Amino acid sequence: MPRKTEPGVQTQNSPLTQTQRAQFDRDGFLVLENYVRPELVGTLRDRMAALLAGFEPEEQQSAFIGNNEASDDGYFLESGSEIRYFLEPDARGPDGKLRRAKDLSMNKVGHALHRLDPIFERATELLEVCTLARQLGQREPLPLQSMYLFKQPRIGAPVALHQDATFLYTEPASVIGFWLALDDATEENGCLWALPGGHELGLKRRMRRVGAVETRMEILDPAPFPEAELRPLPVASGSLVVLHGLLPHLSQPNRSSQPRHAYSLHLIDGATHYPQDNWLQPLPQEKAS
Ligand code: FE2
Fold first, then answer.
1. Ligand 1 centre and the CA of 99: distance in Å?
2. CATH code that applies to domain 57-158+172-227+237-286
3. Which of 143, 105, 117, 125 is nearest to 46 (CA)?
4. Left, alpha or beta for 151 (phi > 0: left; psi -120 to 50: alpha)?
5. Ligand 1 center from residue 191 Cα (angstroms)
6. Distance 159 CA to ligand 1 centre (A)
7. How far is the CA of 205 from the centre of ligand 1 (A)?
8. Average pLDDT per run of 10 along the chain, which is 289 residues long?
9. What separation in Å is there between the alpha carbon of 92 and the centre of ligand 1?
10. Gap from CA of 255 to ligand 1 centroid (Å)
11. Rounded CA gap, 80 and 167, in Å?
């Protein structure tokens, strides 16, 4: 299909300027406002609505438990090579039934949307994240993980302060996160918060897989982050936030009446070492162009 007929990014090849690359090196993050056209945002939202229409909540095994928790959940640990559905922690009532409609109960869907679903796969190409990752230093950009994040009105759970390299560990550290806003993300509905320059502080923790269905968290540096220096990153729908894998970041709960959908991708450098005891296994072999 000719590229110009598709609802892709705003600029061809999306080259980063020298100033933007310097900002990323200094701050550990970059905000690319109005990165995609509204049509692409609509395409992703519509596709997720269609996927959810085919999902039966009674089959659901997991509520998402937050980034800081060790997991003993096979449904989660096997999700790296699947498309799996995770509920908000408060989605079920005491009777075990969903309190609200399923499309208002989901926390996230992950972690192989970009490989297994043709619409998300094509959208991921249009985002040109591999081009961006190369410009930011990766030699062999490898899209490893994708998530559709819902952050539902009223019940959208927080994501605790973390570094992505804790979960997607390579030697040397190489992961870069790409976070596409599919709604306006505000302080009220749970936008990202980040610690500018915090990627220079080193990796604090690493999640290791210790069995088929179990992980544990290894503490590498117990010194806390200077959380008072966290700053919010509100962005409009269609903006792309790029996060260094060592950058400490979080998101607050959504106490507002507005949703805060986002599509998140994590790329590692395929030229680095990817340990066998990372939670996400196996490592997909294909390299992105
Ligand atoms: Fe993250």
1. 28
2. 2.60.120.620
3. 117
4. left
5. 12
6. 8
7. 13
8. 50 75 97 94 96 76 46 60 82 83 89 93 94 96 94 90 96 97 97 98 93 85 96 97 98 94 96 90 55
9. 25
10. 20
11. 12
Residue 4 Cα to ligand 1 middle (Å): 32
Q: Provide the 10 A C-beta neighbour count for residue 118.
A: 9
How far does the centroid of ligand 1 lie from the alpha carbon of residue 204, in Å? 14
pLDDT tens digit string along 110-145? 889 999 999 999 999 999 999 999 999 999 999 999
Indicate the pTM of the whole model. 0.89
Q: Which of 244, 226, 223, 193 is nearest to 29 (CA)?
A: 244
CA pair distance 71, 198, nearest whole angstrom: 26
The token pair that represents 81 in the structure block: 């090579």
How many CA atoms does the CB half-sphere of 128 hold within 13 Å?
Answer: 18
Interval between CA 97 and ligand 1 midpoint (Å): 29
* Order of strands across the sheet that contains 249-251: 159-162, 249-251, 192-194, 231-233
What digits encode the pLDDT tens for the residues 68-104? 344 445 666 666 777 888 888 878 888 878 888 888 8
